[in-house]
Amino acid sequence: MQKPKIQVFPSILSADFGRLSEEAHRLELAGADGIHIDIMDGHFVPNLTLGPKAVAAIRKSTHLFLDIHLMIYNPFDYVEAFVREGADRITFHFEATEDVEDTLEFIHKCGKQAGLAFRPETSFSMVPKFISSCDLLLLMTVNPGFGGQAFMPDVLEKIRLAQEAIRRQKSGCVIQVDGGINPDTGKQCVEAGATVLVSGNYLYHQKDLKQGIASLRV
Ligand code: DX5
Ligand code: ZN
Hints:
By secondary structure, the chain is an alpha/beta fold. It is 35% helix and 20% strand. An eight-stranded parallel beta sheet has the order 1-8-7-6-5-4-3-2.
């Protein structure tokens, strides 16, 4: 079987927030496939990060694909703002809204890719029915909220099951993993069926960002 192409999305959560434009440019030079931007509301997760204006600033300084990860309640209400400021894909949490289908549909209506994220403890049984309506499944490999946490290996089984379900449904949906990803855990996720890797802490501790990104692709 042909080896799948692995995409690497550095998480800007681990970057210097005083220099977001420069950081975005640096990621472009280092060969990132896009930038993962974590949006937290202090309610869905116990942390606060960035909003649409920060996304606009990043958008101005790079042509890279902007991958927005919403960890907020009522994601539907914020889709338009993030689209306006330059998002290319908007991923929101299954656990954050009763309007999963409507929100996925609205993101598509805005002409953007739509992703659906699942916390580690959310059962796999919730996943299959949404595969046909989204471009990406984000299977969290830590509890969302903070960078620098340890990878949760129990999620590997969920990745395998999701990959099988995607294949059975003949869907083009891809699997993204986020949390505690380094070359070792990334490889385990890729073997289980993930093709889109998000990494913050590991990448930002590398002397050479370009080599760090390349090390996740093998
Ligand atoms: C956690 C965020 C992640 C985080 C990953 O809630 O969604 O994107 O930045 O960071 P690391 O790679 O440090 O676990
Ligand atoms: Zn994230």
